[in-house]
Amino acid sequence: MAEPSGTARDPEAVSRFVEHFAAQLVEAGMQRMPARVFGALLASDAGALTSAQLGEQLQISPAAVSGAVRYLAQVHMVSREREPGSRRERYRVHGDQWYEALTSREAVIKRWEDALREGVTSLGADTPAGRRLAETLAFFEFVEKEVEAMMERWRVHREERFGGE
Questions:
Q1: pTM score of the predicted model
Q2: Cα 67 to Cα 119: distance, rounded to the nearest angstrom
């Protein structure tokens, strides 16, 4: 398969990488089809492919591509964009997809923290269940602060290593 940029690729080598990387994502909890689509996008030089290109490369139906892309967009791992002068959409993976995926989890963690605070109040901070919830809450608050600090260090490291975009 030729990349959209025209660079010749060994389709077997690309397929092996995509399937191996997807297997690692599946093992970590991602659904198989989104993992394969994400791997294919990550392996493309342009970082963007159309539904037809994804379907052809992965030998999957348009519906499978659509479902996978919908999930990946919801978790901020890909974005949709229109091809210039066309009605076709391309799906793009960005260099900061891990950052986006991780930081999008902050809203979920905030909701968990709110629910845990309510639980501690409802159950009583001095009960065994209340103490367990308070410790869980403290853990999420700790992780949240650590992730914020880590992401700031990542931005500095990325700039030093890869330059600005």
A1: 0.71
A2: 36
Question: Over its length of 165 residues, how does the chain's per-residue pLDDT go in tens digits?
Answer: 444 545 677 889 999 999 999 999 999 999 999 999 999 999 999 899 999 999 999 999 999 999 999 999 988 889 999 877 888 889 999 777 777 677 677 777 888 999 999 999 999 999 999 999 999 999 999 988 888 898 889 889 989 998 865
Cα torsion at 97, 102, 108, 109 (round to 10°)? -170
Q: What are the distances in angstroms from CA 115 to CA 111, 125, 146?
A: 6, 14, 21
What is the C-alpha to C-alpha distance for residues 43 and 48, in angstroms, rounded to an integer?
10
